[in-house]
Each structure stands twice: as C-alpha cells, then as structure tokens.
Amino acid sequence: MNRTAEPAGTPVRRVPSKFRGPFVRWPRTADALLALAMFLATTLLEEGPGDTIVARSVVDLPLPVLLLFMAAGVALYWRRHKPIAVLGVALAAWAPTLGSSYATVSGIVMVALYSVGRHTDDRRWGPLGIAAAAGALTIDGLLLSLPAEETGFGCLIMLGAWYMGRRLRLRSERAAQRALAQAAEARRIAAEERTHIARELHDVVAHRVSMMTVQAGAARMVAAEDPQGALEAMTAVEEAGRQALDELRHLLGVLRPKPERDGLGPQPGLTDLPRLVAQVREAGLDVSLTDDIRASLPARVELSVYRIVQEALTNVLKHSGPHTRAEVRLQHDPCGPGISVDVVDDGKGAALQSVSGTARGSGTGGHGIVGMRERALLLGGTLDAGPRPGGGFRLTAHLPLQPAHGERA
Asked: Are 282 and 274 in contact (CB under 8 A)?
C-alpha cells in the first residue's frame, strides 16, 4: 500500500527517545561513584539524638571499623556482576558493629539488596538476604533498646529495596519479551502477506504460460498455410513470454528471504571481528577478542568464522543478558591444518538448556547451534557446545583450511 504524501510544510513528528540515566549510559563510572558516596556516608555520618543525622570525624573511627566500612563500600563496585557476593560482604561488615554507633553499614546493605533483586534471577538469595538483614536489624534494635516499631520499619525498608530491584528486573524482562513477540508477529504477518502475493503471481504466470502454449500450438498448425498468421501468433507468444518473465522475476523477489546485509558489498571476515565485538560491547556484553591467526585464510573459512562468532555472541546476549563476560579466542588448530574458534561466557542463562536441536540460540531470530554446526560441517569441521561445569556456556569449532572430500572449493 502506498504511503500518502504529507503536505509541504508539515512538521516532522519525532518519536522521543527513551531516557537513559547515568547508571545505563556509564554503568562502571556510576557504580564507582555510588560506592564512593556510600562509603563516605557510612564513614562520616551517624545517627544523633532525636532521629537526627550528625557528622563525625574520621579520626574518631577505630581502624578495624574503618577497614570494614572500606570493604563494604568497595564491594559495591561489583554489585552488577556479583550481587550475591556483595551482599555477603556488606552483611559481614555490618555484623561486628551491631549495637554500637558504628552500625551505619545498613545503607550499603540496602543498596546490595536492591542489586540482588535487580541483577540476579536466583529467587532464593533475595529472601535469604532479607531474612539476614532483618535479623541484623533486630539484634541491633535489642542491643540499643530501640522501639519495635523502628526495627520493623527498617525491615520494611530492606524488603522494599529488594522488591524494587526485583520489579525493575521483571519489567525489563517483560519489555524484552514483548519486543521479541512483536518482532515475531511482524515477521509472521509479512510471511503470510508474501505467501498471499506469491499465490496471486503464480496464477498470473500460469495463465500467461497457458496462453503461450495455446498460441504456439496455433502458430505451428497454420505455419505452412498462413505464414503471416503464424508470425503474428509467435509475436503474441513473445510478448506473453516477456510479461511472464517479468511476473516471474517479481515472484522470485517476493519469495526471496529478506537479506541480512544491504547491498552487494563484500562478505565479512576476520578484519570485521573487532567492529562486531565493539557493537556487542555497546549492547552491554563485556567481551574480549584474542586473535592469534596470522596467515591468510580462504574466504569461505573467514566468513564461517565471522558468522559463528556473531551467532555465538548474539546467543550470549539473548540467554545470559548484558553484564555477562565473554571471551572469543581464535588460534591455529594444534590437531591439524586448520583453526579453532572458542567462545566462552560466564552467564547462567544456558545452564538449563540442552545442546540438541532446541538448544541455546535455536529460537526465533537466529539459526542457533544447529546453524553454526551446519556451517562447520560444510567445511569438513566440527562444532561442540554445551554448559560449563562452573557455570556459563562454551562453544568450540574446529575448521579445516583445505576443502573436505566432496566439498566444492
């Protein structure tokens, strides 16, 4: 359907971009500043009489207490990657100070609880962390003879911090699922429309070919007695053939899958891997690339290496999410004339996945392990993938440099 042109002078409607705060734009810098701010607040502020907050001097702090504050504050820098460990450090630093005026690590514990809810999908540690924080608050309240209402309010704050992080995580996951569902629905509708158009064009082409057959038969029958009539019939056949050819080209264009790359530029190779890694880093994946390949490779091998790495990193983002560490290593295969591709991540999203046809990455939007293994087999190589014993996922491909038996170079 053609798009109706807007009148001249009509202002262009711009879709407002989604707001991205500093914790999304610069996560490492923001976490470092947060850790510093929480350390300074824990060190320099304490509760005064009448529920007031008063300042205190660093020189009044015992050295062991200052070291505990420092450990809890520094640990916050890793709250995205290791939220459970950060919560454990914060609780351990808080415990020796309970019942004293130095028990101000509760703010760091609250941030750690929020991080557990926001950055981990393990549902066990959140309630356990809340129970530990509530127990510490109860002990602190009993030692300081605080009212039960004040202790209960503190427990609610700890619960609220974890719940807020949990809700934000669930909301972002639902948004990602909705985006995937909408993309899948759009592809389904486009495929149905292409099928409908293809059926119509098939009928048109079949009709024109039938006309060509009839006209060619008539020309053959009258060729001896009426050469001029036969010539006119063959002219009609030629015109119908041209029209059928145009319709056939259109039909093939409708049935052709949507290309992944625009234009007819060169296929990607090893030199394009740094750019691919940079794009994946922008998406939130902490990935490193080690390329020990020095010799030139056949174009088919370079293309397969690029596509395997591309699909593997896409699967890491899809199943383990951002803030996952991944490592890509390319090296010459010590077992023979070839190269090996190794992609390792520390995420936990694939721990429950199988390595069969429904394995990690074989869902909507990609060919997954099945497609990557097929690329390796077409080159006469192998590909193995599966969860790592210590958590995460590992993919290893061995690709020979010489064509396998029966493979077309």
From this structure: no
pLDDT at 396 over 90: yes
CA 300, 302, 307: angle at the middle one, nearest 5? Answer: 95
C-alpha to C-alpha distances, 29 to 22, 38, 53, nearest whole angstrom? 8, 14, 28
Give tens-digit pLDDT for 358-391: 334 443 334 578 888 888 888 889 999 988 887 8
Nearest to 260 by CA among 326, 311, 321, 298: 311
Residue 68: alpha-carbon gap to chain centroid: 37
Six-digit token pair at 309?
A: 């790495």
* DSSP labels, 179-216: HHHHHHHHHHHHHHHHHHHHHHHHHHHHHHHHHHHHHH
Structure tokens at 401: 């440099």
Contact between 304 and 379 under an 8 Å Cβ cutoff? The reply is yes
Region 303-330: mean pLDDT is 85
**CA pair distance 278, 292, nearest whole angstrom:** 18
Cα separations in angstroms, 34 against 74, 92, 108, 111, 156: 10, 20, 10, 10, 23
Q: What is the per-residue pLDDT across 85-104, written as a single tens digit (0 to 9) for each?
A: 999 999 999 999 898 888 88
290 CB contacts (<8 Å, ≥6 apart)? 327, 328, 329, 330, 331
Amino acid (1-letter code) at residue 314: T
- Note the pLDDT of residue 70: 92
